[in-house]
Write a structure and sequence with these properties.
The complex is a heterodimer of chains A (about 800) and B (about 525). In chain A, helix 18 links the parallel strand 11 and strand 12. The longest helix of chain A has 22 residues. Chain A has 30 helices and 20 strands. In chain A, helix 13 crosses helix 20 and helix 14 runs antiparallel to helix 15. In chain A, strands 6-5-7-8-9 form a five-stranded mixed beta sheet. Chain A has a five-stranded mixed beta sheet with strand order 15-14-18-16-17. Chain A has a four-stranded mixed beta sheet with strand order 2-1-3-4, covered by helices on one side. In chain A, about 40% of the residues lie in helices and about 15% in strands. The two termini of chain A are about 50 Å apart. With about 800 residues, chain A is an alpha/beta fold. Chain B is an alpha/beta fold and about 525 residues long. Chain B is about 35% helix and about 10% strand. In chain B, helix 10 runs parallel beside helix 15. Classes of the chains: A alpha/beta (about 800), B alpha/beta (about 525). The interface between A and B is large, with 44 and 49 residues.
Chain lengths: ~800, ~525
C-alpha cells in the first residue's frame, strides 16, 4: 500500500489545541493517529516545526509505544488477544488461522484488499472470554480456529447493518420509572458479549409491552463467565439473575416479571413456560443461556467467600450515577477528612490500617504518603510555590491475565476519585493524574464523565466541599507499554518521554513528576481508601492477616469453571479460590497449578494450593502478589510453554535500557523457544538458571528483576517437564513441534474432522478410519475438538515409528 | 559531605557525588561503558555494578548517589561475576570482528588488515613494522607459507582472497633491499642470558623477540648453518638461500650470537646450558620420547611435554616449542611459537608470574550472507585478485597498493580504544557464553568521515545524550524498544545531518567501534 497524501491542517489544529510543550507529545501522537489511523512521517515533521518537540524526541517516543503505527493500515484492525488466559486457550492457533484465512505472508499484517490488519495485543483485559479477538470496537470471545472465517463475515455483516448507528447503546433511557428494576451489567466483558445490543432490545421490549420497571446500568459484578448478566429485581419478592442473555430473550424476560399492559394472557403463558425450562433444565454448561438464582449453589459459592470493599455495592451501583454513589455513603470519607482530620491524622489512619500497595510490590501505603508529605514540606521550606507534590493514580494495568483495575475504573470511578482526593489532601497535592491504559477506552470514558460530574458537584476544583483544600485531576492515556506500570517509567511517560525507568533513589516520593515529590498509588489501593476512613483502620486490619490486611481483588481466569473478578480477604487459600469460588477445573481435567502475579509472578503447584494468599507466603514459593492475576492451569498446560509465554511477553515489553533485561530476557527466551521446539541442548537448563539469576540480580527496575520468576518457579516445581523437553517430549502434549495428532481405530468415519481441518490435512473417507497428513497438519487441534468419538489423540513426535 | 566505605576503605565525597566518583577518588577502577562525567548517568550498560549493604540487588554505581554510612563492595567475586555477565550479554549482541578473520586464522596473529592499509597508503616503513611485530621471518614465509589467512578472507568466494602472503613478501623484500632495513627498537639490556637450542624458524623467532626485549641470546645448533628445516628441509627453488640468509642476518644484527656445530647432549648438556643461562628454549625439532627422557624432561604424546599456554617444560626455566612439542606443522606455526615462548621467557626472567601471551580477544561475526558482504564490498576497491605477472620480481608499488585496496576492512576501526574489548579482556569475558540469534550486519557510511555500524552499538545512550544537548542538529535517537531498540538519525536522516559538528565528540564518547572514523588513524 502506498501512503496517501496527507492533509496537514489537522496537525496545526492539534498543536493549537494541545500545546507546543514536549509534555504534550503523547496526546498529540494519539490525536494524530486517531485522525490519520497511523502516523504519517510528514505529520510528525510538521509537529516538530510547530512545537518544542524535537525530531529525536518524536521519533523516539512514537516508536517506543506499541500503540503507534508508522504505516497505513487496513480498514479494520483485528486485535488478537495474547493475554495469559487467551494463550492457554489457544490464541496462537487463532492468529495462525487468521493469517491463513487472510492469506498473509510471514511479514505481512494487512490483507491484499486492505480490508483487515492483523495485530497481536498483550491483553484485552477480558480474560473470561478467552480466546478473544477484537475487530475495531467489537469483541468476539470463545473462538475456535475454524470459526475465524465466520467471525469476519459476521463482523462485515454487522458493519453493514450498523453503519451510522454508532454509540446508540450508550444512551440512558429516560422516563422509565416503576416499581421494579432491571439491572444490566455494563463492564467491558458484558459489553463485549453484547450487553449493548441487549440494552437496546430491553428498551424495545419495555416500549412494546408497556411494562414499567427501571432499566438500570450497573458496573461489573465480577461474574464474567456469565455475561451478559441481567438481574431482575421486582418491587416485591425474590430477585432473579439471568446469565448469558441474548437480545431475543429480552421480551420474554420482561414479560415474565412485569405486568404487561394490554398484552394477551395467552402470550404470557407461552413465554413463561419456556423460561421455566431455562430455569431448571440447564446447568453449568459452557454453552447456552440460562437464568440463575442468587441463592443457587454455584452462585452462592462464587459470592460467599468474597468481601466487597474496593468493589462495595457491586452489581448495584450505576458506574456514573453520582447521586447514587452519594446515597451509598459516597464521599462521606472525604467529607470527614476535610472537616475533622488533619492530613497527618489521615496518614496515621492509613498507616494503622496496614494497607499495602496493591500494584505489586506491596509497599506500605501510609509510609509512602508520609514520605511524600515530608519531602513536600522539606521542599517548601527550601523554596517557593513550585514544590507542590503531585498525586498519580497508576491505572496502567498491563499484566496479561489481569483486569482488576479496568473493572474498578469502569465500575467505581467515583470511589477511586474519592480515594485519590483523600490521598491528595493527605500529602498536600493540588494536581493529580489518572494514568490509564489506552486499551481501556471504556474506563477512560467513565472516569472522564465522573471527573466532570465531581467538578460540578464541588468534589474537585478549588475549595472542595467548602474547605481550603483544592485539587483537580487530568487523565493521561497510556500508549501501550507494560513497563509504564513501573512508577518511574510512568512518570517519564506523563512527561511525554519514552517510558524508561530510572534508578531509585531518587524515589518519586522525593523527586517525581517534573522533579517534584509525587505520590503514585495503584487503582485498587486508592479504591480501598474511602472504606478505611469510613469504617476505620481497625475494621480493615481485622480482615486479612497480620502482615497483609484487608482484601485483594483478583482476576480469576484460565481453566477454571467460573472465571471472573473476585474480592477476597487476604489469607484465603488458593485452593478455596480455585475450587470453591472458581468451581474447580472445567471439563473434568486435573488441577495443576495457579499462575499468580503475571509475568513477574510464578506458578504455584497444586500441591501447595493450601497456601494462604498474602504477600509473604506467595513470595516464599517464588510467586508474587503482583497486581492480582490468577490464571488456573490444568494438566493440558505445559509449564515450559507457560514460562516461554511469559518470557516472550516481558522480552517484548522490556524498555531496552539496561543490558541484563534487554539482552538477558531475549537469551532466556531463545533457550525456552529451543526447548519448546525440540532443539534443546545439554546444559540449556543450567544456562537458563544462571541467566535467570543474572537478570534477577542485575536489572535496573522491577520488570527486569522479576522477569525470571516464571522460569525460576517452574524450574523449581516442574523440572522433570523441562528435562522431558530436553529429550524432545512435551508431557502435556502442548508444544506443537513435539507432538503429532493421530486418528485411532475408534474413528467412526464421520468425516467431521476432514470438514473442519483448516489446511486439508485429512481426506474425507466416509465410514473408514481417517488419516492425518503429518506434513500438512498445523497441529491446531480442531480435529480433536470436533471428533464425536474421541478418536483423535496426541502423540509424541519422538515415538513416530513405534 | 557523606562518608562511605568502598571495599572497607573509607572515602568522603561532596554531596550529590556518585559511588562511581567516590571509587575513582580511591583509585578503584570500576568499569563503565555508558557513563561520562559531564552527562547524567544513563545506567544502561550495567557494567559498573556494585553491591551496597541493605540492598538485595546489585546497583549501577554511576547512578547511585553516595550516602553517609554506605558500605559498598566493588572488587568481590560476586560483583565481578555480575560485571562479567553484563559484558558477556553485551558481547552476545555485539556484531563485529575486533580483528579480521585473516588475522584470527594467522597462527602468528599478524595484523594483516593494518599491513594492507599501510601498503595501500604507500607507507611501507610502517607496513614492515606491522609485519615484524608478529613475524620474524616475513620474506621467508612470504615464499613458503601456505597462507591459511587467505582462506579466511571474506573476499575469497567473491573474486578471490587478498594476496596477503605475496603482499607480505613484497613488504619484506622491499625492506631487505633497502639501504636501511627495518631495525626495531630494542629494550635496554636486561643483563639476562638465554640459550636457544635450534636455529630453525621457532628458535630464530624466539631469539628475535627476546633480543627486542633486551635479553642476551645465544643460539646453539648442530648444523653448520642456521635455518633448520628452512635450510635443510625446504628445496632451494622454493626458498632462495640468499633470502634466508638475509633475514637471519637481520636477527644477528640485533646482537644474537650463533654457536653452530654444537650438539645438545654431547659436550653441551642441558644441565650445563641451564646453569650457564638464565633460561633455555628448546627448539630442537622433532624428537622421540627416548630423546626427551635422555634430557630428563617429561615427554608428551608428540614430543616434549609443555604447558600449552606458556611453553614451560617440566623443569623450571626450560621452555620448548616448535616441532619439538608437536607433530610438524607449518613454518608460520613455528615462528608463532617462537614469539609466544619469548613472551613467556620474558615473564620468567622478570620474575613475574609466567602466563604466556595475553589471550587474543576478538568478537567474531562469523560467516556473512551475500547482502551483508555486499555492504562491506561497497567500501573497498572492486576488481579481482591480482598477482604479480613475474612472481620472482614481485609486485611493483602501484600494483601492490591496488591489490591492498581490495581489503574489505572487516576488522574494527577502534580495536584498541574499544572499552568493551578492554573490559572483556580484563574480566575474562567470553563472547560465546550467551550466544544467541545474530542481528544482520549493516553499516551507515553514506558519506562523510564517520561510519556507524549499528551491530556494534551497545545502546549506551551517550551519543543520543550528546546530540540532544545541542538542539541544532537532527541528532540521534533510540528507535523502538527492548531487544530491537536501535540508535538512528530521526526521520531517516543521514549520519552527517544527525551528527554534524558533534561527530568528533560522539566518536570519542562511543565506547565501541559503532561510531568510528572512516580512516584508520594508524595509517
Amino acid at each position: 500500500m502506498t501512503s496517501p497524501t496527507v492533509d496537514l491542517g489537522y496537525v496545526d489544529q492539534t498543536i493549537e489545541r494541545l500545546g507546543r510543550d514536549p509534555a504534550a507529545c503523547i496526546p498529540i501522537l494519539q490525536a494524530l493517529q486517531e485522525h490519520y489511523r497511523y502516523l504519517p512521517a510528514a505529520a510528525l515533521r510538521r509537529v516538530c516545526e510547530l512545537s518544542d518537540i524535537s525530531p529525536a524526541v518524536i521519533a523516539g517516543v512514537s516508536t517506543f509505544y506499541s500503540q503507534f503505527r508508522h504505516h497505513p493500515v487496513g480498514r479494520h484492525i483485528i486485535s488478537v488477544c495474547h493475554g495469559t488466559a487467551c494463550h492457554v486457550k489457544g490464541a496462537d492457533l487463532i492468529t495462525q488461522a487468521l493469517r491463513r484465512h487472510l492469506r498473509l505472508s510471514p511479514h505481512e499484517d494487512t490483507d491484499a484488499q486492505g480490508l483487515f490488519t492483523l495485530e497481536k495485543v498483550a491483553c484485552l483485559g477480558c480474560c473470561t472470554l478467552a480466546p478473544a479477538v477484537k475487530i475495531d470496537e467489537v469483541t468476539y470471545g470463545h473462538l475456535q480456529p475454524d470459526q475465524v472465517g465466520r467471525m469476519l463475515q459476521e463482523f462485515l455483516d454487522w458493519q453493514k447493518q450498523h453503519a451510522g448507528a454508532k454509540g446508540a447503546d450508550r444512551t440512558r433511557p429516560d422516563g422509565i420509572t416503576g416499581d421494579g428494576e432491571i439491572r444490566l451489567g455494563l463492564g467491558s466483558c458484558c459489553v463485549s458479549r453484547g450487553s449493548g445490543k441487549l440494552h437496546q432490545a430491553l428498551l424495545e421490549a419495555l416500549r412494546q409491552t408497556g411494562a414499567n420497571p427501571t432499566l438500570k446500568r450497573v458496573g461489573c459484578v465480577g461474574m464474567c463467565h456469565q455475561t451478559p448478566l441481567l438481574e431482575v429485581v421486582p418491587a416485591a419478592g425474590r430477585s432473579y439473575l439471568y446469565a448469558r442473555v441474548e437480545p431475543r430473550d429480552a421480551r420474554a424476560i420482561v414479560l415474565s416479571h412485569f405486568r404487561p399492559k394490554g398484552v394477551a394472557r395467552r402470550l404470557r403463558n407461552t413465554v413463561s413456560g419456556w423460561l421455566d425450562s431455562l430455569l431448571t433444565d440447564r446447568s453449568w454448561e459452557p454453552i447456552g443461556r440460562y437464568a440463575i438464582q442468587v441463592r443457587d449453589k454455584p452462585v452462592a459459592a462464587f459470592l460467599d467467600k468474597q468481601e466487597h470493599l474496593a468493589t462495595e455495592f457491586c452489581g448495584f451501583l450505576d458506574p456514573t450515577d453520582l447521586a447514587e454513589y452519594e446515597a451509598n455513603q459516597g464521599f462521606a470519607a472525604l467529607r470527614e477528612c476535610l472537616a475533622n482530620l488533619a492530613p497527618d491524622q489521615v496518614i496515621d489512619e492509613v498507616l494503622k490500617s496496614g494497607l499495602r500497595g496493591r500494584g505489586g510490590a506491596g509497599f506500605a501505603a501510609g509510609t509512602k504518603w508520609r514520605a511524600v508529605r515530608q519531602a513536600a514540606s522539606a521542599a517548601a521550606a527550601d523554596g517557593g510555590p513550585g514544590n507542590q507534590p503531585f498525586a498519580v493514580c497508576n491505572g496502567d494495568e498491563g499484566d496479561p491475565g489481569a483486569f482488576m483495575d479496568r473493572m474498578l475504573l469502569e465500575s467505581y470511578p467515583y470511589r477511586i476519585i474519592e480515594g485519590m482526593t483523600i490521598a491528595a489532601y493527605a500529602v498536600g497535592a493540588r494536581q493529580g493524574y489518572f494514568y490509564i491504559r489506552a486499551e481501556y477506552p471504556l474506563a477512560v470514558q467513565r472516569v472522564q464523565e465522573a471527573l466532570e460530574r465531581c467538578r460540578q458537584r464541588g468534589y474537585l476544583g478549588d475549595r472542595i466541599l467548602d474547605s481550603d483544600f483544592g485539587f483537580d485531576v487530568k487523565i493521561m492515556e497510556g500508549a501501550g507499554a507494560f513497563v509504564c506500570g513501573e512508577e518511574t517509567a510512568l512518570l517519564a511517560s506523563i512527561e511525554g518521554r519514552r517510558g524508561m525507568p530510572h534508578l531509585r533513589p531518587p524515589y518519586p516520593a522525593q523527586q517525581g513528576l517534573w522533579g517534584r515529590p509525587t505520590l503514585v498509588n495503584n487503582v485498587e489501593t486508592l479504591a480501598l481508601v474511602p472504606w478505611i476512613l469510613r469504617r476505620g483502620a481497625e475494621a480493615f486490619a481485622r480482615l486479612g492477616t497480620p502482615t497483609s490486611s484487608g482484601t485483594k481483588v483478583f482476576a480469576l481466569a484460565g481453566k477454571v469453571a467460573r472465571g471472573g473478578l473476585i474480592e477476597v480477604p487476604m489469607g484465603i487459600s488458593l485452593r478455596e479460590i480455585v475450587e470453591q469460588i472458581g468451581g474447580g477445573i472445567a471439563n473434568g481435567r486435573r488441577f495443576k497449578a495457579v499462575q499468580v502475579g503475571g509475568p513477574s509472578g510464578g506458578c504455584v503447584p497444586a500441591h501447595l494450593a493450601d497456601l494462604p494468599v498474602n504477600y509473604e507466603a506467595l513470595a516464599s514459593v517464588g510467586a508474587i502478589m503482583g497486581s492480582g492475576g490468577l490464571v488456573v492451569l490444568d494438566d493440558g498446560d505445559c509449564m515450559v510453554d507457560i514460562a516461554r509465554y511469559f518470557l516472550e511477553f516481558t522480552q517484548n515489553q522490556s524498555c531496552g535500557k539496561c543490558t541484563p533485561c534487554r539482552i538477558g530476557t531475549r537469551r532466556m527466551l531463545e533457550i525456552l523457544d529451543a526447548l519448546c521446539e525440540g532443539r534443546g541442548k545439554p546444559g540449556d537448563l543450567e544456562r537458563l538458571e544462571s541467566l535467570a539469576e543474572t537478570v534477577r540480580s542485575s536489572s535496573l527496575c522491577g520488570l527486569g528483576s522479576t522477569a525470571p520468576n516464571p522460569i525460576l518457579s517452574t524450574l523449581r516445581y516442574f523440572r522433570p517437564e523441562y528435562e522431558a523437553h530436553l529429550a524432545g517430549r512435551c508431557p502435556a502434549g502442548r508444544c506443537r513441534a513435539l507432538i503429532r495428532y493421530e486418528i485411532t481405530e475408534d474413528c467412526i468415519g464421520c468425516t467431521l474432522c476432514a470438514q473442519h481441518c483448516p489446511v486439508n490435512a485429512i481426506e474425507a473417507s466416509p465410514y473408514r478410519r481417517h488419516e492425518i497428513d503429518a506434513q500438512r497438519c498445523v497441529r491446531c487441534g480442531t480435529c480433536k475438538s470436533v471428533c464425536p468419538a474421541d478418536a483423535v489423540i496426541i502423540q509424541d513426535v519422538a515415538c513416530q515409528n513405534t | 559531605m557523606p562518608k562511605l566505605t568502598i571495599d572497607q576503605r573509607p572515602v568522603q565525597v561532596a554531596p550529590g557525588q556518585t559511588v562511581l566518583q567516590a571509587a575513582r577518588k580511591l583509585g578503584i577502577d570500576i568499569p563503565t561503558l555508558c557513563y561520562r562525567e559531564d552527562l547524567p548517568a544513563n545506567t544502561s550498560c550495567m557494567v559498573c555494578l556494585v553491591k551496597v549493604n541493605g540492598r538485595q540487588r546489585l546497583v549501577p554505581s554511576c547512578g547511585l548517589t553516595a550516602e553517609e554510612g554506605m558500605q559498598v563492595e566493588s572488587e568481590t567475586p560476586e560483583v565481578h561475576a555480575a560485571r562479567r555477565a553484563s559484558l558477556e550479554l553485551l558481547l552476545s549482541d555485539h556484531l563485529g570482528d575486533c580483528a579480521g578473520p585473516c588475522q584470527l586464522i594467522c597462527p602468528a596473529r599478524m595484523n594483516i588488515p593494518l599491513m594492507l592499509r599501510q601498503i595501500a597508503a604507500g607507507q611501507l616503513e610502517k607496513a614492515i613494522a606491522t609485519v615484524k611485530a608478529d613475524i620474524a621471518l616475513p620474506a621467508v614465509l612470504g615464499r613458503i607459507c601456505p597462507a591459511p589467512c587467505e582462506k579466511g578472507c571474506r573476499r575469497g568466494p567473491l573474486d578471490g582472497p587478498l594476496a596477503i602472503c605475496l603482499l607480505k613478501r613484497y613488504v619484506a623484500d622491499v625492506d631487505l633491499q633497502s639501504n636501511k632495513p627495518y631495525r626495531p627498537a630494542c629494550a635496554p639490556a636486561s643483563g639476562k642470558r638465554v640459550a636457544v637450542v635450534g636455529a630453525g624458524p621457532a628458535g630464530l623467532a624466539a631469539a628475535y623477540y627476546l633480543a627486542r626485549r633486551g635479553h642476551g641470546v645465544t643460539i646453539f645448533d648442530r648444523h653448520e648453518q642456521a635455518g633448520g628445516m628452512l635450510r635443510y628441509g625446504v628445496p632451494e627453488d622454493r626458498l632462495g638461500r640468499e633470502v634466508l640468509a638475509a633475514e637471519i642476518d637481520q636477527i644477528r644484527q640485533l646482537g644474537v650470537l650463533f654457536r653452530m656445530n654444537t650438539t645438545l647432549g654431547g659436550e653441551m648438556s642441558l644441565e650445563r646450558l641451564r646453569r650457564d643461562h638464565d633460561a633455555v628454549f628448546l627448539a630442537i625439532g622433532a624428537v622421540t620420547s627416548e630423546q626427551v627422557e635422555s634430557l630428563a624432561l617429561a615427554a608428551g604424546r608428540q614430543g616434549i611435554q609443555v604447558d600449552k599456554l606458556t611453553g614451560q617444560t617440566s623443569q623450571a626455566g626450560i621452555f620448548a616449542g616448535g616441532d619439538a612439542v608437536r607433530v610438524r606443522r607449518m613454518a608460520v606455526r613455528a615462528v608463532a611459537d617462537g614469539k609466544e615462548v619469548a613472551c613467556s621467557i620474558d615473564q620468567y626472567l622478570s620474575g613475574g608470574h609466567v602466563t604466556g601471551p595475553e589471550p587474543f580477544f576478538s568478537s567474531r561475526m562469523g560467516a556473512l550472507a551475500a547482502p551483508e558482504l555486499e555492504i562491506l564490498c561497497q567500501a573497498a576497491d572492486p576488481g579481482p585478485r591480482s598477482e604479480p605477472p613475474d612472481l620472482s620480481a614481485g609486485y611493483d608499488p602501484e600494483s601492490a597498493a591496488t591489490e591492498a585496496r581490495r581489503c574489505l576492512h572487516c576488522d574494527c576501526r577502534k580495536p584498541d580504544e574499544c572499552r568493551l574489548r578492554i573490559y572483556a579482556r580484563q574480566y575474562g569475558a567470553s563472547c560465546g557464553r550467551y550466544k544467541g540469534s545474530r542481528k544482520p550486519f549493516s553499516r551507515d557510511d553514506s558519506r562523510g568521515e564517520v561510519i556507524f555500524e549499528p551491530g556494534k552499538c551497545i545502546d549506551c545512550g551517550l551519543c543520543v545524550q550528546i546530540t540532544a544537548a545541542a538542539r541544532d542538529t537532527l541528532g540521534l535517537t533510540f528507535i523502538g524498544r527492548g531487544f530491537d531498540v536501535r540508535v538512528a538519525v530521526p526521520f531517516e536522516g543521514s549520519l552527517d545531518e544527525g551528527l554534524s559538528h558533534l561527530a568528533a565528540d560522539c566518536v570519542r564518547a562511543c565506547p565501541t567501534g559503532a561510531l568510528a572514523w572512516r580512516r584508520d588513524r594508524q595509517v
